[in-house]
Predict the 3D structure of the following.
Amino acid sequence: MDKVLIIKLGYTETLDNSLSLTTSLGDVLRTTFVLNFFKDCDVSWLVDEKATPLLEDNPYINRILAYNSQVLEGLKKEKFDIIVNFEKLPEVYRVVNSLDCNKCFGFGFRNGSNSNSSGGKRLIELSQNVDKRRANKDCWQKVLSESLDIEWKGENYVLGYKPRLKVTHDIGFNWQTSAKWKNKPWPLHCWKELERLLNGKYSLSWQQGLDSLYEYIDWISSCRLIITGDSLGLHLSLALQKRVIALFGPTSHTEINFYNCGTFVLPESPYDCIPCLKPVCDKEYPCMEYIFPERIKEKIEDEFKNNKPASAL
């Protein structure tokens, strides 16, 4: 049985070149699809402590290691068959290059990594070149799989936590997004206008569980259809096989595979910079202002007419 170490803390988004110590929970969750490639392995996952609820009770993870100096020192005493590093922090680079392993994939390895393979080169290229990332049409899963020299065949996220709540709402408004991206949120006045347009036709719930990942997952599970920006809520909804309508502006919708669970809406804006892949907008009116509530109302009605959003798993 191969011994595998996956490093995805959430500090750096895999296809973004900026560094941050704000944990990107969505990036951690969306990386879990790679666990499908290591089902028969002894897998350890190094992650920021804030993201551990997203990995707990995962059937394909043997050890969840919260990132700290003591854990890092302990790893130096181990030998791994495979190390997968999707973090771009210099401190992580120093650690991975001090570890004993046979095969290395991802970022920061001085010797013996897959960075010379076509998939490895492309991963690094997309993470460093915004223009090439804007032009990219492949979903995130395909890019990461090819960096592991594996063909992606539709493998989904793997969420261990099982929601406690059954469906009680037709629609969930997942209106808040991470503070890292100031221009991702759909403006609050648009959400309120959408609520007015729906006029009580559907049972509606505004985002809950803001202080607890478990409660947040439970809330998503309680909704038949989730309206969301490009955020953790989108990835949780897909992991739970919820119907989703996702609103995109500054980020790339082509990087998301919806697993036949929903659709996306883009701004009807006069700008040619979409997706800019920038966390802050310099326009007087950000592109998300050009997603009009009337369009979302039409999408919602189409969902309930043609797709019949299902109950919770």
